[in-house]
């Protein structure tokens, strides 16, 4: 069964083909997506809220003659258990062992959004909920953001840089950490760094000490950069990194050191309030990306988000085209 769970499961050449397919769809060269999605049903399961992901998947399905069903776990459907061998005498009424195959009988694809628990980094790294869906579904499963990755976002990010800078190879991509009001997962920064490496960019990751990303992801970023002949670096000097960048990608994430300690995490964000990105961080011809939603003047200052160099709206639009390409790829297979 072919799934879309992790960029690690795909070669950069295949990812590049998906980006190119998304761009062709955006230009109106319908082809395979129109054929592949017509009359198909996508079932989306959300363990966590969404504005862009839900709407862009629904829009992609409708645009090409398919249909999408949205279920919010614990809201309009049962709370779901995913662990093996547990006594289900708590808040969960149904197990993924039944839910995934049942939903597979109704539709052609399952898409799942989960969220890192931010209590145990090793447990989050196993991505257990989405892996349980992939294990028990009998149709392809799509990652709409899991504990570890947000691969749809990564594809849209790559597509956006390619459009705005007319190519990605050899561009200087800086992923910079920014403060927040609460701990957030590392899924988006993981996928952003993977996409940048796969796209042939030089990758610099700027964050304060203690905010290291997942080692397995960083190894793959380094491997793809080495294969592309580009550089990879991690730095604590945010301003120097950003000043030298063609692409400044801003994202907040929590430190594993503060998992289970929200007060400590808040204090650490306050200690690094000067990491909020402003217009002064951006080179004259640089572009500014953020996956959204963004907390204005905490993560990025108004002056930068409203600057001509900010491409966050186009980036969000590109989610729809990137996902249409992924849906088409999975269904065509
Ligand atoms: N970027 C993103 O996934 O947005 P939503 O959380 O609104 O879906």
Describe the protein's topology:
Layout: H1 12-26, H2 32-37, E1 41-46, H3 52-63, E2 67-72, E3 80-81, E4 94-95, H4 96-106, E5 109-113, H5 121-125, H6 128-136, E6 141-143, H7 151-165, E7 172-177, H8 187-198, E8 202-206, H9 215-228, E9 232-235, H10 238-243, E10 247-251, H11 262-271, E11 287-289, H12 302-305, H13 312-332
Parallel strand pairs: 1-2, 1-5, 3-4, 5-6, 7-8, 7-10, 8-9, 10-11
Helix pairs in contact: 1-7, 1-13, 3-13, 4-6, 7-8, 7-13, 8-9
Bound molecules: phosphoric acid mono(formamide)ester.
- Second CATH tier, the architecture of the largest domain: 3-Layer(aba) Sandwich
List the secondary-structure elements in sequence, H or E: HHEHEEEHEHHEHEHEHEHEHEHH
Give the overall pLDDT as a whole number.
96
Outline type = globular
Proportion of residues in extended strands: 5-15%
- Total of DSSP H or I helical runs spanning 4+ residues: 13
Q: Calculate the terminal CA-CA distance, rounded to whole Å.
A: 9 Å
Determine the structural class based on helices, strands and strand pairing.
alpha/beta
CATH topology of the largest domain: Rossmann fold
Number of strands: 11
The distinct ligands, each listed once, are: phosphoric acid mono(formamide)ester
Read across the widest sheet, the strand sequence of neighbours is: 9-8-7-10-11
CATH superfamily of the largest domain: Aspartate/ornithine carbamoyltransferase
Q: Kindly provide the name of the CATH class of the largest domain.
A: Alpha Beta
Uncertain residue ranges: none
Main beta sheet strand tally, sense and closure? 5 strands, parallel
Number of domains: 2
- Using only C-alpha atoms, the radius of gyration works out to 19 Å
């Amino acid at each position: 069964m072919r799934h879309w769970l992790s960029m690690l499961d795909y070669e950069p050449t295949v990812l590049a083909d998906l980006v190119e397919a998304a761009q062709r769809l955006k230009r109106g060269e319908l082809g395979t997506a129109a054929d592949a999605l017509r009359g198909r049903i996508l079932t989306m399961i959300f363990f966590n809220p969404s504005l862009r992901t839900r709407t862009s998947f629904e829009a992609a399905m409708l645009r090409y003659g398919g249909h999408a069903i949205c279920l919010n776990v614990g809201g309009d459907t049962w709370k779901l258990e995913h662990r093996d061998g547990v006594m289900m005498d708590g808040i969960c009424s149904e197990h993924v062992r039944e839910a995934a195959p049942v939903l597979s009988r109704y539709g052609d694809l399952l898409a799942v959004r989960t969220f890192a628990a931010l209590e145990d980094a090793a447990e989050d790294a196993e991505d257990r909920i989405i892996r349980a869906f992939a294990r028990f579904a009998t149709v392809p499963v799509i990652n709409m953001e899991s504990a570890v990755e947000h691969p749809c976002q990564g594809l849209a990010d790559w597509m956006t840089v390619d459009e705005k800078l007319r190519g990605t190879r050899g561009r200087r991509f800086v992923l910079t950490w920014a403060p927040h009001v609460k701990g957030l997962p590392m899924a988006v920064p993981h996928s952003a760094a993977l996409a940048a490496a796969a796209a042939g960019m030089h990758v610099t990751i700027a964050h304060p000490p203690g905010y290291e990303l997942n080692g397995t992801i960083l190894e793959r970023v380094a491997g793809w950069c080495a294969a592309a002949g580009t550089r990879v670096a991690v730095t604590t000097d945010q301003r120097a990194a950003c000043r030298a960048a063609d692409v400044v990608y801003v994202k907040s994430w929590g430190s594993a050191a503060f998992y289970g300690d929200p007060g400590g995490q808040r204090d650490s964000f306050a200690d690094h309030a000067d990491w909020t990105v402003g217009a002064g961080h951006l080179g004259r011809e640089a572009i500014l990306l953020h996956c959204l939603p963004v907390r204005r003047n905490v993560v990025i200052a108004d002056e930068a988000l409203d600057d001509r160099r900010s491409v966050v709206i186009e980036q969000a639009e590109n989610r729809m085209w990137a996902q249409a390409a992924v849906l088409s790829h999975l269904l065509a297979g």
